[in-house]
Amino acid sequence: METKLAFEELAQALAPYGQLESASFVQGMLVGQLSAAPDTTEAMWIKQIVDEGGISKIKESFLILLHQLYTETLAGLNSADCDLTLLMPDDEAPLARRVDHLSDWCEGFLYGMGLGQLGEVSREVTEVLSDFGDIAMLAVPDTEDEQLNASFIEVTEFVRMAAIMVYDEQNPVAKPKIDLPDDQDAFSLLGATTKPTLH
Question: Is-contact 144 94, C-beta < 8 A?
């Protein structure tokens, strides 16, 4: 599913609210919150965004964008085809910018998970949370090439599928189970051992 909500459109709407960090952070936060607190309604989530952003007056156009983000993200998470689309800069953006926003997405996801009453989770979910913590600190070199771009695409797909897997475990529904290969984690994709670096 190609999301109808454009990254740049939401990014521009969020620009005045620095506390919300980025459009990617906000979507990651939403997915994390929906995973940890399955009863999170759209109204509850929007109130959380308003509170987090310190927004005193909210425009109708901004509410429409938040509604679109909520409905499209929830539909992607619950799709039988696993067609959640991460809200990220397009492929033509510099790699460093894309990596920054993937890091933001993971940071937002972890923050959103922290907003819910998360009970005991499986080993797989624990590993994903650890991997997301590493990706949230991801650094990239100043240069970029085809190999770096290919690695980034792999890590992005890992994040997308891992997020769906966590959501599925916390919100069981009748659709195929998401399995991540045991040997696939962020560090194996990145080849990093200390501070994560895309290479």
Answer: yes
Q: What is the DSSP letter of 176?
A: P
Topology at the third CATH level for domain 7-190: Four Helix Bundle (Hemerythrin (Met), subunit A) (1.20.120)
Go through the chain and tell me how many residues it has.
199
Domain extent listing, the chain: 7-190
With beta carbons less than 8 A apart as the criterion, state whether 99 and 198 touch. Answer: yes
Instruction: Indicate if the alpha-carbon torsion angle 17, 129, 175, 83 is positive or negative.
Output: positive
Report residue 133 as tokens: 């913590």
**60-90 residue pLDDT tens:** 888 899 999 999 999 999 888 888 999 999 8
Q: What would the DSSP string read from start to end of 78-126?
A: T-TT---------TTS-HHHHHHHHHHHHHHHHHHHHHS------HHHH
Query: pLDDT tens, 149-180?
Result: 888 999 999 999 999 999 998 877 644 444 55
* Helical (H) or strand (E) element with 198: none
Q: Which residues in 79-112 are b (16+ Cβ under 10 Å) and which e?
A: eeebebbbbbbeeeeebbebbbbbbbbbbbbbbb
